[in-house]
C-alpha cells in the first residue's frame, strides 16, 4: 500500500468531515446537555460546555429505576425474538430448500406474499387477537408477532439453495438423519448469513415502537422505546439534562455494539436490505 | 388375510422411494414451527382485519355487525382520512428524494476515501441504530426549540420548526433523513464495492477522468440498486408513524398527521376498530400496489437482461 497524496482526496476529506460533523452534532449535543448542571441546559447563546461536567442527571435517571427495567425488558424480548426468528426461519427455509412435501409450493408462495404485509396496518386485528388470547401486557404479545418474519425465511431459502448438496449427502451416506445434518452441517456452514439476519432482527426488534407501545400499558413490561416515550410526556417534565441522559443511555448500547461489530453489522444490514434484488 | 390383499398394490410404489417418504414427513416438521406462528400472527390477523373492516366492531369487540363496504365508503367521504393520506403521500415524496440522493452522495464519498472508514460509517449510519423514541425526544427537546434548540441557537434564527403548520412537515422530513439515510448509504456502499475494479482500470487506460468514470461506469451500474432503494424507501415512508406521533402528535392543525396515526386515533382513541381497519387497509392496498410494481419492474429487467 503506497499512500498517495492528491488534492482530490483532500477535497473529499474536507467535505466528508463537514458532513460527519453535521450528522454527529445532534448526538454530541445530547451528550453535552446530559453532563451540564440542570440550570445551564437552556442557556442562550448556546454553550457546548457548562461550568462543570457533572453526572448528576445520570445518577438521578438510573436511580428512578424505570430505565434499567425497560432496558432489561428490551434486551430480553429482543434476544428471544432474534433466537426464535432465526431458529424457526432457518428450519423452515431448510424445509423449503432441501426437502419435498405436499403443498410445498403453495406454502412458500403464501410466505412470500406475507413480505408485502406491513405490520403497521395489522394493529387493530392483532390487538383484538391478543385481547382474545389474554396476552396483553405480557412479553409474548410483544414477541410472537415479530417472530412471524417472512423476509428472513426468504433470505435463508435463497441461501440454502446455493449451498452445495454434496456436503449433506456425504453425511447421509454415513447414516446421519435430517436433523443431525441440519444442526451439525447446515447451520455451522451458514454462520455468516445467520449472523447477518440475527443482527438485522435484533436491531429492528430493539427499536420497534408502535406494536410494543400498543400492547404494553404496564410499566413493568414496557420496552425501552415505549418507556422512554411515556417518560417524555410524564415525569421528567422540563429537566433537560435528565431527559438527555435517558436518551444517551437508551441510544448508547447499540452505538457501542456497532463500533465493536462494525464489519458484521454493515454486512448484515446490506445483505438483508438487498435481499429484494 | 383380507387385509394383506390390497397391501402389495399400495406398498409397492411407496416402498421404492422409501427415503423420500421419510423426507416428506421431515420437510413438514421443519416448516411447522414457523408456519404455526406465521399463520397465527400474520395470516390470521390479515384476514381478521379485512373482516373487521367490513363490520362496525368497537375496541371491546362489541357492536359487531356486518356493514359491507360501508366503512370504505365512509372513509372515501371522510376529509380527515383524505388529509392524512395526503400528508402521508407528501411525506413520502419529500423524504424519498433526499434519502435516496444523500444516501448515494455519502456512499460515493466514503467509497472514495481511504481513511477513517469507521468514523464515516458511525457518523452516517449511527443514527439509524437509535430507537425512534430516542430520535424523537432528542429533536423535540433539544434540536428544534427556539432559543436553546441546536438549530435555532446555532443559526440565530427563530423558526417554529414544530409549531408552524407550513414548516412542521419539512421538520419531520429533516429528522427522518438524519435518522434513516444511513440505511440507504450502506446499501449503496455495498453496491459500489461490488463493481469490478477492472472496469475503472480499463477506463483509466483510455484516459477517462474521475467524472467520466462516475458518469459512464458507476452511475449506470447503480441503476438496479437505485430502483430497489427507491421502492424500499417508498414503502418505508408510506408507513411513517413513530417520529411524527412522538414529535408533533400529528399537529399543528393536523398538518403532519399520517394515515397510520389516523387509523390509530380512530381505532384506539375513538374505539371504532372496524372503521380503523378500513382506513388501514386503504394504505395496505397502496403498499401492495407499490410492491407489485416493484416485482414487475424487476421481472422486466431480468427478461431484458437475459
UniProtKB/TrEMBL annotation, chain A:
CDD domains: TM_PBP2. Its main location: membrane. Pfam families: BPD_transp_1. It is a multi-pass membrane protein. Gene3D superfamilies: MetI-like. InterPro entries: MetI-like (IPR000515), MetI-like_sf (IPR035906). One of its GO terms (biological process) is transmembrane transport. Residues 71-261 form the ABC transmembrane type-1 domain. Signal peptide: none annotated. It is found in: Cell membrane. One of its GO terms (cellular component) is plasma membrane. Keywords: Cell membrane, Membrane, Transmembrane, Transmembrane helix, Transport. The chain crosses the membrane at residues 70-94, 106-127, 139-160, 181-203, 240-261. PANTHER family: ABC TRANSPORTER PERMEASE PROTEIN MG189-RELATED (PTHR43744:SF12), ABC TRANSPORTER PERMEASE PROTEIN MG189-RELATED-RELATED (PTHR43744). Belongs to the binding-protein-dependent transport system permease family. This is Sugar ABC transporter permease. The lineage of its organism: Bacteria, Bacillati, Actinomycetota, Actinomycetes, Streptosporangiales.
From TrEMBL, chain B:
It is found in: Cell membrane. Gene3D superfamilies: MetI-like (1.10.3720.10). It holds the Pfam family BPD_transp_1. GO terms for biological process: transmembrane transport. Keywords: Cell membrane, Membrane, Transmembrane, Transmembrane helix, Transport. Its main location: membrane. The chain crosses the membrane at residues 28-47, 89-110, 122-147, 167-190, 221-241, 278-298. It is a multi-pass membrane protein. It comes from the Bacteria. Residues 85-294 form the ABC transmembrane type-1 domain. GO terms for cellular component: plasma membrane. Belongs to the binding-protein-dependent transport system permease family. This is Sugar ABC transporter permease.
Amino acid at each position: 500500500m503506497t499512500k498517495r497524496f492528491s488534492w482530490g482526496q483532500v477535497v473529499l476529506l474536507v467535505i466528508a468531515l463537514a458532513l460527519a460533523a453535521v450528522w454527529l452534532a445532534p448526538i454530541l449535543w445530547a451528550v453535552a446537555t446530559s453532563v451540564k448542571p440542570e440550570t445551564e441546559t437552556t442557556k442562550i447563546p448556546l454553550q457546548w460546555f457548562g461550568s462543570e461536567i457533572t453526572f448528576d442527571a445520570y445518577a438521578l435517571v438510573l436511580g428512578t429505576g424505570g430505565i434499567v427495567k425497560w432496558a432489561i425488558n428490551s434486551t430480553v424480548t429482543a434476544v428471544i425474538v432474534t433466537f426464535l426468528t432465526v431458529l424457526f426461519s432457518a428450519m423452515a427455509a431448510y424445509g423449503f430448500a432441501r426437502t419435498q412435501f405436499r403443498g410445498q409450493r403453495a406454502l412458500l408462495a403464501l410466505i412470500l406474499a406475507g413480505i408485502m404485509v406491513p405490520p403497521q396496518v395489522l394493529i387493530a386485528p392483532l390487538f383484538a387477537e391478543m385481547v382474545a388470547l389474554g396476552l396483553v401486557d405480557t412479553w409474548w404479545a410483544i414477541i410472537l408477532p415479530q417472530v412471524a418474519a417472512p423476509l428472513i425465511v426468504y433470505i435463508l431459502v435463497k441461501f440454502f439453495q446455493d449451498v452445495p448438496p454434496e456436503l449433506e449427502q456425504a453425511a447421509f451416506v454415513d447414516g446421519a438423519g435430517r436433523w443431525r445434518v441440519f444442526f451439525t452441517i447446515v447451520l455451522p456452514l451458514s454462520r455468516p448469513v445467520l449472523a447477518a439476519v440475527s443482527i438485522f432482527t435484533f436491531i429492528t426488534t430493539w427499536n420497534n415502537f408502535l406494536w410494543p407501545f400498543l400492547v404494553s400499558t404496564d410499566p413493568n413490561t414496557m420496552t425501552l422505546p415505549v418507556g422512554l416515550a411515556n417518560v417524555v410526556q410524564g415525569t421528567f417534565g422540563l429537566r433537560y439534562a435528565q431527559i438527555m441522559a435517558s436518551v444517551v443511555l437508551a441510544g448508547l448500547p447499540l452505538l457501542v455494539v456497532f463500533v465493536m461489530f462494525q464489519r458484521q453489522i454493515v454486512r448484515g444490514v446490506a445483505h438483508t436490505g438487498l435481499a429484494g434484488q | 388375510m383380507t387385509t394383506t390383499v390390497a397391501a402389495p398394490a399400495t406398498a409397492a410404489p411407496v416402498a421404492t422411494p422409501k427415503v423420500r417418504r421419510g423426507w416428506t414427513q421431515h420437510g413438514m416438521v421443519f416448516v411447522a414451527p414457523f408456519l404455526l406462528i406465521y399463520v397465527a400472527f400474520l395470516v390470521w390477523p390479515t384476514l381478521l382485519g379485512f373482516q373487521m373492516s367490513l363490520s362496525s366492531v368497537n375496541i371491546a369487540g362489541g357492536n359487531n355487525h356486518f356493514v359491507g363496504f360501508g366503512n370504505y365508503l365512509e372513509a372515501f367521504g371522510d376529509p380527515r382520512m383524505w388529509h392524512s393520506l395526503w400528508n402521508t403521500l407528501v411525506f413520502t415524496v419529500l423524504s424519498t428524494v433526499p434519502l435516496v440522493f444523500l444516501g448515494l452522495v455519502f456512499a460515493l464519498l466514503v467509497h472514495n476515501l481511504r481513511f477513517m472508514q469507521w468514523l464515516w460509517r458511525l457518523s452516517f449510519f449511527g443514527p439509524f441504530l437509535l430507537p425512534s423514541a430516542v430520535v424523537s425526544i432528542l429533536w423535540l427537546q433539544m434540536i428544534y426549540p427556539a432559543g436553546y434548540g441546536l438549530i435555532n441557537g446555532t443559526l440565530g434564527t427563530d423558526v417554529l420548526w414544530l409549531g408552524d403548520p407550513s414548516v412542521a412537515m419539512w421538520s419531520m422530513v429533516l429528522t427522518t433523513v438524519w435518522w434513516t439515510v444511513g440505511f440507504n448509504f450502506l446499501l449503496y456502499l455495498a453496491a459500489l464495492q461490488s463493481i469490478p475494479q477492472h472496469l475503472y482500470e480499463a477506463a483509466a487506460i483510455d484516459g477517462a477522468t474521475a467524472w467520466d468514470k462516475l458518469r459512464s461506469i458507476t452511475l449506470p451500474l447503480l441503476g438496479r440498486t437505485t430502483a430497489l432503494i427507491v421502492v424500499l424507501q417508498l414503502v418505508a415512508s408510506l408507513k411513517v408513524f413513530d417520529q411524527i406521533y412522538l414529535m408533533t402528535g400529528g399537529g399543528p392543525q393536523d398538518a403532519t398527521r399520517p394515515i397510520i396515526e389516523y387509523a390509530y386515533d380512530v381505532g384506539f382513541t375513538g374505539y371504532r376498530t372496524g372503521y380503523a381497519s378500513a382506513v388501514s387497509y386503504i394504505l395496505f392496498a397502496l403498499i401492495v400496489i407499490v410492491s407489485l410494481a416493484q416485482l414487475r419492474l424487476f421481472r422486466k429487467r431480468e427478461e431484458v437482461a437475459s
